[in-house]
Write a structure and sequence with these properties.
Elements: E1 7-11, H1 16-31, E2 40-45, H2 51-65, H3 74-77, E3 81-85, H4 94-103, E4 112-116, H5 123-132, E5 140-144, H6 152-163, E6 171-173, H7 181-191, E7 205-213, H8 222-247, H9 256-268, E8 278-288, E9 291-293, H10 296-300, E10 309-314, E11 326-331, E12 338-345, E13 364-370, E14 374-382, E15 393-401, H11 402-405, H12 414-424, H13 433-452, E16 458-462, H14 468-475
Parallel strand pairs: 1-2, 1-4, 2-3, 4-5, 5-6, 7-11, 8-16
Antiparallel strand pairs: 7-12, 8-9, 8-10, 10-11, 12-13, 13-14, 14-15
């Protein structure tokens, strides 16, 4: 059923995600008149606020996290907000929520969009409460924020609970990386330019690197992170989605079914890893930007075997990518904050310049996702000169900075796009159940390899590029990590 919701219900409306991302994103959409005037936003959480108290809570968050040029829209945005206290474990609270939803906005509701950002333990009772109170009907769709389980079994349990009340075409599983402009640009780069797609295969690409580096530590996520670790927190969702978008076959159409069909084929092609294809790490003490930072165990307050760094050499067993390694690397307290994809092409099969003393280097495509969005293609070019001592060649970068290339359009954070798509019902940038389960199936295999082989985290200095073993993992394949 296609509809544009005129009510948006935010579970976890007082949490960190709501303050930093959701409320600022919704205010930005309001400022640019991208949502209908009749869209009402209802927040719910355990905290007991009146409508006015919640609006004041939202004002404080918006003043803190909204970009300066957006702040004039705050006063006109706040009247959209209302609030209903809810204990999701108490079914008796849901009729009050249903009544609240029925009294906000103007006229008869056209549809309800729900953004569920709660602890995984609350998913099942929340879904039960929504269904029992009539809030899971045909004119309701639901967005699910991660984590969706800790493995394949728990993910299936959560998905079964959600599926008991919502069909798949009304379930929007969120991976905020898919809302980033440069991630979406992967599809445009590959499928809107004839020069790349003929070369996008094992015959012309030597390897691919995907790096997600963070300089931060636990940042108040102690309870969640120590039970998850880098593999579950970053590789299972963000990094495997990036891999799928790099490696997918051309979809027939740019729509939710076609795009996600191709991504799940990639995820199901992932070869189970061996023990010598993975490295775990945990940051020790060190320095970030000249400031001393403590070790993970010191931040946590106790010893732990949770990994804060993972490096994996992955393979896809399919026609296009057979024999091409995909190197995945992610870690906290790294030397720099970066998310990037490096596509390393093969060298030319025969260099006509060898006899002139010139050496060629293989072309490299670097797609920067954060902190800056850019695309850099390195090409070989002749160094100017008379060449009496031999020809000299040098790599020359063709650099496209998105901020410079698109100076006019407003740069948006990922949640603006995802919230708008949730309200309007476009699932293209959301994750389907079979994708999630294919991801978890492979991740569970990685954890089994760690357990079976006693692979424990290796300590690395904060402010470094990770454990030395990760360097060795790449170098064994003749590869150097891009820094």
């Amino acid at each position: 059923m296609k509809f544009t919701a005129d009510r948006l219900l935010l579970f976890g409306a007082t949490g960190d995600l709501a303050q930093r991302m959701l409320l600022p994103s919704l205010c930005a959409l309001h400022a640019d008149k991208l949502v209908d005037d009749d869209l009402a936003i209802i927040g719910t959480a355990r905290s007991e606020y009146s409508d006015e108290e919640y609006r004041e809570f939202a004002r404080v968050a918006l003043e803190k996290f909204l970009p300066e040029h957006r702040k004039p829209a705050i006063d006109s945005f706040l009247p959209r907000l209302s609030y209903q206290h809810l204990d999701a474990t108490n079914l008796e609270h849901f009729p009050q929520l249903a009544q609240k939803l029925g009294t906000v906005g103007r006229g008869i509701s056209k549809g309800l969009a729900i953004f569920l950002s709660t602890a995984p333990s609350l998913f099942e009772p929340t879904i039960a409460g929504l269904a029992a109170s009539g809030l899971a009907g045909e004119a309701t769709r639901i967005g699910l924020e991660k984590p969706l389980g800790t493995g394949l079994a728990t993910s299936r349990h959560i998905n079964d609970a959600v599926a008991s009340a919502f069909p798949e075409d009304r379930i929007f599983r969120i991976d905020h990386y898919l809302g980033k402009e440069t991630v979406q640009n992967l599809l445009a780069l590959r499928f809107a330019n004839i020069m790349f797609e003929p070369l996008w295969n094992a015959a012309h690409i030597d390897h691919v690197q995907i790096t997600v580096g963070e300089t931060v530590g636990l940042e108040g996520r102690v309870g969640f992170y120590d039970g998850a670790g880098a593999l579950r927190d970053m590789v299972q969702n963000h990094m495997l989605q990036l891999l799928a978008m790099v490696a997918m076959e051309p979809p027939a159409h740019y729509d939710a079914t076609s795009v996600r069909d191709e991504k799940v084929k990639v995820l199901r092609s992932l070869r189970p890893i061996r023990a010598d294809e993975t490295v775990r790490g945990q940051y020790g003490a060190g320095a970030i930007a000249g400031a001393a930072v403590p070790a993970y165990a010191e931040e946590l307050g106790r010893p732990s075997t949770t990994e804060t760094f993972v490096a994996i050499k992955a393979h896809l067993d399919n026609w296009r990518w057979k024999g091409v390694p995909f190197y995945l690397r992610t870690g906290k307290r790294m030397s720099r904050r970066v998310t990037e994809i490096v596509v390393q092409f093969r060298n030319v099969p025969h260099s006509i310049f060898d006899g002139k003393g010139a050496r060629t280097q293989p072309n490299r495509l670097v797609i920067g996702i954060q902190p800056s969005e850019n695309i850099t293609l390195s090409l070989m070019a002749k160094v100017p000169g008379l060449d009496r001592g031999g020809i000299r060649l040098r790599e020359v970068p063709l650099d496209i900075a998105m901020d410079d290339a698109f100076a006019g359009p407003t740069r948006r954070i990922a949640y603006e796009r995802l919230l708008l798509d949730l309200i309007e019902g476009d699932q293209t940038l959301f994750v389907r159940r079979d994708e999630v389960e294919a991801q978890w199936d492979w991740i569970d295999g990685v954890r089994d390899v760690w357990e079976d082989n006693g692979i424990m985290p290796k300590t690395y200095f904060s402010g470094s590029s990770g454990p030395e073993a990760a360097v060795a993992l790449a170098e064994r394949g003749g590869v150097t990590w891009h820094e």
